[in-house]
Design a protein that fits this description.
The structure is a homotetramer of 365-residue chains.
Chain A: E1 16-24, E2 27-34, E3 42-51, H1 54-61, E4 78-86, E5 98-101, E6 104-105, H2 111-114, E7 132-133, E8 145-149, E9 153-155, H3 162-166, H4 168-180, E10 189-193, H5 197-208, E11 213-218, H6 221-229, E12 234-237, H7 243-251, E13 256-261, H8 268-275, E14 276-284, E15 292-294, H9 296-301, E16 305-308, H10 316-325, E17 335-340, H11 344-352, E18 360-364
Parallel strand pairs in A: 10-11, 10-13, 11-12, 13-14, 14-16, 17-18
Antiparallel strand pairs in A: 1-2, 3-4, 3-8, 3-18, 4-5, 5-9, 6-7
Helix pairs in contact in A: 4-5, 4-10, 7-8
């Protein structure tokens, strides 16, 4: 199956487009806006699909730092689509290329960007200086068209579906974390806590990198079942008994080399400390509503490093996309809900109420 | 299919065993010798199969540094078998466990061993200080029984065949090299020069770690065909035209991120320099008869690092074995010749003359 | 000034020695015991001086895991002295060599030891398998003589004093932590929380590695004054106002690249999170009486890694000793109290009561 | 002594400036040109001093790839000066700031730039895409004024002299190489081959990072003497006897952990292989007129990695500058010749003829 758009005559881009604009707290409405035009190094993308994540709910509840003003701002930071206009100097892409994205573009001039840590850009939010996070500090993908810089764009092979591509950004988050811990987990035993989109993509990445055994911990049977289908070697229901003991038992004699915390549950960090083997690693990819409490002395005694990474930097979306294209990682199984963009309000209502357990909901403009 | 030995009553170990002893240059003969007994931290293994490599031919031609004396020395450094006697303090294994090995054990007291670089042990060859390389500086696997230290031993899952297990040591060489270059090649394009056992195992390891595209370079069609079966995405016949151009063309726009040189051909290092992309890595796993000539200035100009690794240290045999057990890497397809130990002379004659293109020849005691 | 012992005729070692033996909780008494003799790879050292640390108080209060039995056990894990007897195979040292130590020796056969992480040895406490921690799981340095393995021993240059040497083990703890975070802090701004021996040695190490600015945080003026003498560029009194604001102000525009927590204060980990710059590193070298509470989500949002290391592994005592020998790091300024071994009870009473603010107390047998 | 310019009223920038323009092979002439104006993210710098290096001679002999056209191009890639005009968005610097530079700015959009390897930018030479190398692919510092991007600019503390600052770029080359090999050489023994500016700065950096012993190898007594003044612990005259033996002897029992090749001599790479200890590292910072010949098999047998780095990327100029500002590294001792810009032709004649052994010649506009 091939999804490629035929790139024929120069595309006619309409002067206005439909877009979901945030007008105030929890007031997201689809309106018409002028279609933006790309600057140097940028392209215009016709959005095929834009996913949602927990952050989108937070953004709608209260403004994020460096967010564009109410009445203008288009959220949406996990999207895929087709390049339709090239900005000046762009020869990395052609009109008609289907693309996946990373959300972050660094300023390219701060100390962190200089060493490739651009998801921790010290000029975060400064559009003037060149930083952009699509759908957070600049307009994103809940729209027919969106601008993006080529340094955060990856060409899709023809046989990668939109549903797989829309999850590539999420996979990039897991991959960036795995990169931070060394990227070398072949033969390792890994526990993943939290079968949300990040956890379910990261579990697959671990298997694709050769992990021997991945143990998935969660609270919902449906999620654990999906995890098992996606390659988890064992699943642990956190509602049934002692999580630490259950994971250690599932790990066997080897112990758990790496624990990946993707749940955001307040008790999870302490579980990580108790699960990981001496000399092991903890990778935190989740956010917490409150400060967490954990036995840090044990980490010292056991020589444990705790990595906390943000976003999907450093060529990791490229790597993740390659694993998707190789058929080793699937995003499409996570797309449980699909709506036209015009029904974005209904969609977010379902998300807020966790009705019918949506994993990844996408909007199609 | 399960290969596990039933571990029943205490095994009866015969007082003497058959073993191939090196009596002088190219004078390897199967004789009876006393069966050795393991010391603390060691086990006795009943050899199931012992492979050969180019080094074995060199050892027979002229003695290696720190080699045991003629008339006593049993070569053979790639073997697999079953644990039959446990030395003092050993609880990591049980009698009946099937095992694969790494050949090297460090002294555990030099500066390199202290940081895990024990294949570069500064007390190489000093048995008194604790260093051992099976089949090179101590007796090896061309025998019915062999002693090994538990720190260089890995338990085989039941469904790993002897033929797969005997190649795990070779795979460990590739894996150690991949570890040295960062171990994180998912999505990368890699060229492997030299479809011998190291090259063919390393090619598979690269794919198992998620490499997007592996290009195999060789001179024999049969080897390239085998490489393609084992997962090479493209093959380049080095006898047909410009190798560098052919590899670059097969790599496509991405270029070659990593070149792995496993051929030992004198022109190969320069080809590596010309093939690898700016900022890429070269991994050398081969030995050369003569000094090589290469454009080192180009490596500087292009920010290229050249890694040269020896042996199979640092948990990499464990990782390689896991990939074999997961069914992602196969050794058995490389075992082209199998002889009883008593026919070891005939076997080595075939190897020397490269008769019928043996890839991996094994002897069964 | 040269401290070297002249190595003349074979030394006469007395059959018994004085040693401080732990007979029960807080019951440490100096008695006579047989002088031990070194095994293969070990030496006997005539102790010149043995330091104390907080762990010694804990050991006396209640037994540690894998501690030798009451009535036999000699604590003391920070000591220096002169080699007086060589065990079999030892040629790394000569009788008369003055030495500093690291406390840990790994088993050399577990998975962590194989990659050089022997302070996290999976056979911790198993003397049979080869693990030893001097003064914790085997007899230590509160004695006239002590056995040690050569792989944890470092020869002192002639001009390094005993007082400097006794702190080398402590410096190794800081150095191992700095190694874990990359070892490359030249030009960086670093905050060190806790001016105890570990903090004061680590502060000096940071300067010796080229840190541009080290800010020391503590609660006692005398300690902060000493820190300033030892090279701290700024000091912050944690009892005066907002620690986070004060450190940030002292750091200037650069921000704090690395925070090193060496205090064990319950509020310190959260301060680390608030002090470190985006993309920075936290190194924890302290132990805590209770679980700690911290804003882990902020670490994720800011791409911060938290390293927790134990002990002084991986050639780091050698490196630390070199910096001491180069005159860049001083231990002697920390030796505030010196007693004969026979007064060990009085000494520990002073330590328990923190009388006259001892920094490092040493006992001379 | 303070070198700071008082930043008073807005500076009056003349419409034209004097600059050395390359009109053809070896035809460098000082002419008047329009003073350039900085774009967004850039500043205009009043040049205080611009150094020369071997590359400048090569540029004048034959054009480099991506060099601006004859009649326009101003070379000079090692310079220092004072910021006089800020481009749009620049708040990192103020008018009056004295600055040092790194020569390279990456495109910020290729795969290498994304991970911080911008000196190996895949869009090298493409000004349109954002790449710049001052004095190589864009106008440089042999002029009264020069444009530079803020991401390659570092503020000088007041007490750093222009002579020290002009060598900071060179120091950055050594520092980037040291970063590549791990940046952690405290306590190590290091050999530096080649006492040119790169070698002499790198020797000092090694000492400033805590190296125990640095051995400098060269052919000219005056250079070796200067090296000894700058901190070399031993010097080896390559014209007197066996270099390898002499270095090994000077290294003592420890052996040489790292060899840094900064000479470009054809025999030096093989010497590196023979000098470095098992498991050690070789860092190549030089360029070669011809392919070099070396015993690569020995590198494999001895587990040796060969790093080759280009330029001064990744925050390393910042780190090097900090060491200069701390007084641990001196550039001024290398400035042997200083001429007004108008005498640039005479200067280069002296350089070409190696008259009076210039180490670093600078031109003052």
């Amino acid at each position: 199956m091939a999804y490629a758009t035929t790139s024929a005559p120069p595309l006619k881009i309409p002067a206005t487009m439909r877009a979901a604009v945030l007008f105030g707290p929890d007031d997201l409405r689809v309106v018409r806006k002028p279609t933006p035009m790309p600057g140097p190094g940028e392209v215009l993308v016709r959005v095929a699909m834009c996913g949602t994540c927990g952050t989108d709910l937070k953004i709608q509840a209260h403004p994020f730092p460096n967010q564009p003003p109410y009445g203008q701002f288009i959220p949406g930071h996990e999207w895929t689509g087709t390049v339709v206009v090239l900005g000046e100097t762009v020869d990395e892409f052609q009109v008609g290329d289907r693309v996946a994205i990373e959300a972050h573009k660094g300023c390219g001039r701060c100390e962190n960007c200089m060493v490739g840590m651009y998801t921790a850009c010290l000029n975060y939010g400064s559009v003037a200086k060149g930083h952009r996070t699509s759908g957070l500090t600049t307009d994103g993908g809940f729209a027919e068209y969106v601008i993006h810089h080529v340094n955060a764009l990856y060409r899709l092979p023809d046989d990668v579906s939109w549903e797989d591509a829309v999850l590539v950004t999420t996979a990039g988050t897991g991959m960036y974390g795995l990169d931070a811990i060394g990227g070398y987990v072949a033969g390792d035993t890994i526990a993943v806590i939290g079968p949300g989109p990040v956890g379910l993509m990261t579990l697959q990445l671990c298997k694709a990198l050769g992990a021997e055994r991945v143990i998935l911990v969660g609270t919902r049977k449906s999620r654990l079942d999906l995890g098992a289908q996606l390659g988890a070697d064992a699943v642990v229901d956190a509602r049934q008994g002692d999580v630490v003991a259950a994971v250690r038992s599932a790990a066997g004699r080897r112990g758990v080399d790496v624990v990946i915390e993707a749940s955001g549950a307040p008790e999870a960090p302490q579980q990580c400390i108790e699960i990981v083997r001496r000399g092991g690693k903890i990778l935190v990819l989740a956010y917490y509503k409150q400060p967490v409490t954990l036995d840090l002395g044990r980490a010292v005694r056991e020589d444990v490093t705790l990595y906390a990474t943000r976003g999907e930097g450093g060529n990791n979306v490229r790597r993740a996309l390659s694993l998707v294209a190789q058929g080793k990682v699937r995003g499409r199984d996570l797309v449980t809900h699909q709506f036209p963009l015009d029904q974005i309000q209904q969609g977010f209502r379902i998300l807020r109420e966790r009705e019918s357990d949506p994993i990844k909901m996408v909007f199609v403009p």
